[in-house]
Automatic annotation (TrEMBL):
(S)-2,3,4,5-tetrahydrodipicolinate binds at H146, G155, T156. This is 4-hydroxy-tetrahydrodipicolinate reductase. Pfam families: DapB_C, DapB_N. The lineage of its organism: Bacteria, Bacillati, Actinomycetota, Actinomycetes, Micrococcales. Residues 7-118 form the Dihydrodipicolinate reductase N-terminal domain. It catalyses: (S)-2,3,4,5-tetrahydrodipicolinate + NAD(+) + H2O = (2S,4S)-4-hydroxy-2,3,4,5-tetrahydrodipicolinate + NADH + H(+); (S)-2,3,4,5-tetrahydrodipicolinate + NADP(+) + H2O = (2S,4S)-4-hydroxy-2,3,4,5-tetrahydrodipicolinate + NADPH + H(+).
Amino acid sequence: MSTSSVVRVAVIGAAGRMGAQTCAAVEEAEDLELVARLDAGDDVGAGVRDSGAHVAVDFTVPAVTEHNVHAVLDAGAHAVVGTTGWDDGSRGRVVEHLERVNAERGDEGLGVLIAPNFGLSAVLAMTFAAKAARYFESAEVVELHHPNKVDAPSGTARHTAAAIAAARADAGLGPSPDATQDGWEARGADVDGVRVHAVRLRGLVAHEEILFGNAGEQLTIRQDSFDRASFMPGVLLAVREVGSRPGLTVGLENVLDLS
Ligand SMILES: NC(=O)c1ccc[n+]([C@@H]2O[C@H](COP(=O)([O-])OP(=O)(O)OC[C@H]3O[C@@H](n4cnc5c(N)ncnc54)[C@H](O)[C@@H]3O)[C@@H](O)[C@H]2O)c1
């Protein structure tokens, strides 16, 4: 995939909410061309191959997303994945598949980019929080969502808390100070020792606050997502970048220049 030429893009799950947004965003981008809209019932491999897509974007359902990625690789295209449900096992099988196809190819090889969150504000908040974590005695995460969300705390809040916990451990920090003896149920979920609180309220969309405290000072990092349109800059960035990143990349933070 040459960076100077137009990138041909197939969208899998094109009839869904994220897929439809992605189709519209690709059609609006001058350096991208939408060559296939695929959805349930379509042969993903044939659709990607026959359209000559360089990159396929998957916004489907957890039960089929891994199968789709393998079909995309067999069709000779890069994959950008936003669908949830990936774990160590499914990621490992994709790594093996990439190693196999890339060993057979003469060029720089195929890439798969899986991003649990394409929202730039969410990814930046998580990254900034991980950088700040080592400098504060206390850290807690609050995530706030619409009441139709079925899981709590959110995956993004779990990732944020885990990143904070890892940074604290690297810096040799112990647990945040907390004298609680009774009423632990009011102190939120424990993610690697970092407390995470989930608020469900009509009128909210998707929001996260990361609170850091020292004696006499506090830092709050907050991000607010109001619309699915906010995911599109991240999706398009991934589509443009995946061709130059052979192998598996997990997380949009690895594509953003945050050095
Ligand atoms: N990474 C992110 O930033 C991000 C953001 C929003 C949503 N998501 C995730 O993206 C996924 C899609 O979300 P949505 O709101 O668009 O869902 P949706 O239900 O609106 O759309 C899913 C689409 O996938 C299609 N589909 C089902 N099986 C298929 C198959 N075998 N082949 C091709 N298409 C198939 C469905 O027909 C539907 O059109 C979910 O897992 C969601 O959690 C990720």
